[in-house]
Amino acid sequence: LITLFNFGLLHVLSVRSGLIILYLSLLLGILSLIFLQKKYLLGIGLGAMLFLIPIIAYYTIPSFQSRISYAAWEYQEMRSGRAVTGSDNGRLQSLQVGWQLFKAHPVIGVGAGDLRKEVHAKYAQIYPDQLQSLMPHNQFLSVAAGSGMLGLLIFIVAFFYPLLANKNFQDLFFLMLFFTFFLSFMVENTLENSIGIGFFCLFLCMGLSFLTRLKD
Fold first, then answer.
1. Which sign does the torsion angle of CA 80, 84, 86, 90 carry?
2. Cα–Cα distance measured from residue 152 to residue 150, given in angstroms and rounded to the nearest whole number
3. Residue 73 near residue 84 (C-beta atoms within 8 A)
4. pLDDT digits (tens, 9 = 90+) for 45-86
5. Under a CB-based contact definition with an 8 Å cutoff, are residues 169 and 206 in contact?
């Protein structure tokens, strides 16, 4: 009941990227049921539900409908070349700034401690009319801009090691947990604030503790 309640609550309160991460993670779980556990009927049934739920939510939850409609409007405005002050446009601008910083300092980056200052300076150069400057909305790009290719390689190894060590990826729940964080890293700089670090470390350690007890 708690799971169903939280699932419904996400459609009311969550941002669009959170909903995308939710459905892609569920899709991974369904594909695992079908191809790894051979539970074809259950997987197909859950897949059909996964397809129908957003459609039902669109027509029954006003906040969900407004987010989808706003995303479609913002996309059309950006395709038409008109300036839009919105979340998607802001994300794209932050990615452009992060990429420019990485290209200028590809080996060791601008320095993790100086990244925010350099982002502000690059915003002033590329988008002088933009009042708000955002950190790159991608964790890997944030690391690359701050620490260069060397730092990015170390970060990638450190991030994927808990998943690959002892074949932890064979546990579906742990795999979905990592997949969720990976998707989060693609649209947010999750580890650039204390809440994101705390959330990541808490669930990572809980998952590792659970797998360790299973193997013991």
1. positive
2. 5
3. no
4. 999 999 999 999 899 988 888 888 888 887 787 677 665 655
5. no
At position 111, the amino acid (one-letter code) is G
Contact 26, 2 (CB under 8 A): no
Q: Which of 143, 215, 157, 150 is nearest to 186 (CA)?
A: 143
Rg of the Cα atoms in the chain: 20
Distance between CA 68 and CA 58 in Å, rounded? 8
Residue matched to tokens 């300036």: 83
Q: Coil, helix or strand for 211?
A: helix
pTM across the whole model: 0.86
Residue 188 class from Cβ within 10 Å (0-12 exposed, 13-18 middle, 19+ buried)?
A: buried
Distance CA 52, CA 205 (A): 34
The set of residues, in sequence order, having a beta carbon less than 8 Å from that of 106 and lying 6+ positions away, is 148, 149
Spell out the residues 6+ positions from residue 207 whose beta carbon is closer than 8 angstroms to its own.
168, 173, 174, 177
Are the C-beta atoms of residues 138 and 189 closer than 8 Å to each other?
yes
CA distance 63 to 69: 10
DSSP one-letter string for 150-163: HHHHHHHHHHHHHH
pLDDT value at residue 120: 95
Outline where 82-189 has alpha helix (H). Answer: 87-104, 115-126, 139-164, 172-187
- E strand or H helix that includes residue 193: none
